[in-house]
Write a structure and sequence with these properties.
The complex is a heterodimer of chains A (115) and B (111). Helix content of chain A is 0%, strand content 49%. By secondary structure, chain A is mainly beta. In chain A, the strands form two sheets. In chain A, strands 2, 4, 5, 6, 9, 10 and 11 form a seven-stranded mixed sheet that branches. A four-stranded antiparallel sheet of chain A has the order 1-3-8-7, with no helix packed on it. Chain A is globular. Chain A starts with a strand and ends with a strand. Chain B has 111 residues and is mainly beta. In chain B, strands 2, 4, 5, 9, 10 and 11 form a six-stranded mixed sheet that branches. In chain B, strands 1-3-8-7-6 form a five-stranded antiparallel sheet, with no helix packed on it. The termini of chain B are far apart. The chains are: A mainly beta (115), B mainly beta (111). Chains A and B meet through strand 5 and strand 10 of A and strand 5 and strand 10 of B.
């Protein structure tokens, strides 16, 4: 089945560690996105990529990094510089950009917790 | 930054009742999206609106793109227990290229 796969579902990080969250899509979508969700809050954009080998910072990029080496993959690294990383992380993709009025479709998320 | 104001924050209703929620913005939107999120899962797209004044239905759900382009409404008719979840509005304001989300309306349905 076509879709967006995020792994792992749950992730635990020790203080000072970097961790990488995986996002893979087989929908042949050009654009991919990472959001952070905190309890009682809406989604906030971390990074997005409209095309392979290109990405832009979102509203809360500090302490995060991404890469887009392949169309189907957009991993997110939560670095030790992110002081409050505990959250629910959501990956999304779309056939085009937001400007092209293409709705985003989401994976099932990764819940990151600090040990 | 720009924000979407979504109301109400939460609703507790009886099964069978109709539900109405709305989203407003201080800036103009070209697109309005409505998503539903179940606990521990990603949001699922319910309805997409692309034209001011547009009224679109998806089963028991109906959404409208406000004429002013600064608001949108979602109605659920004859609610059932599986309607429980958090409903988010989202859209790309003209001055920005990215999607922004409201804080959600949490719906609880009593059987």
């Amino acid at each position: 089945d076509g879709g967006i796969t995020q792994s792992p579902k749950y992730l635990f990080r020790k203080e000072g560690q970097n961790v990488t969250l995986s996002c893979e899509q087989n929908l042949n979508h050009d654009a991919m996105y990472w959001y952070r969700q905190d309890p009682g809050q809406g989604l906030r954009l971390i990074y997005y990529s409209q095309i392979v080998n290109d990405f832009q910072k979102g509203d809360i990029a500090e302490g995060y990094s991404v890469s887009r080496e392949k169309k189907e993959s957009f991993p997110l690294t939560v670095t030790s510089a992110q002081k409050n990383p505990t959250a629910f992380y959501l990956c999304a993709s779309s056939t085009g950009t937001v400007e092209a009025n293409q709705p985003q479709h989401f994976g099932d998320g990764t819940r990151l917790s600090i040990l | 930054g720009q924000q979407l104001n979504q109301s109400p924050q939460s609703m507790f209703i009886q099964e069978g009742e109709d539900v109405s929620m709305n989203c407003t913005s201080s800036s103009i939107f070209n697109t309005w999206l409505w998503y539903k999120q179940d606990p521990g899962e990603g949001p699922v797209l319910l309805i997409a609106l692309y034209k001011a004044g547009e009224l679109t239905s998806n089963g028991r759900l109906t959404a409208q793109f406000g004429i002013t382009r600064k608001d949108s409404f979602l109605n659920i008719s004859a609610s059932i227990p599986s309607d429980v979840g958090i409903y988010f509005c989202a859209g790309p304001p003209r001055s920005q290229g990215n999607l922004i989300f409201g804080k959600g309306t949490k719906l609880s349905v009593k059987p």
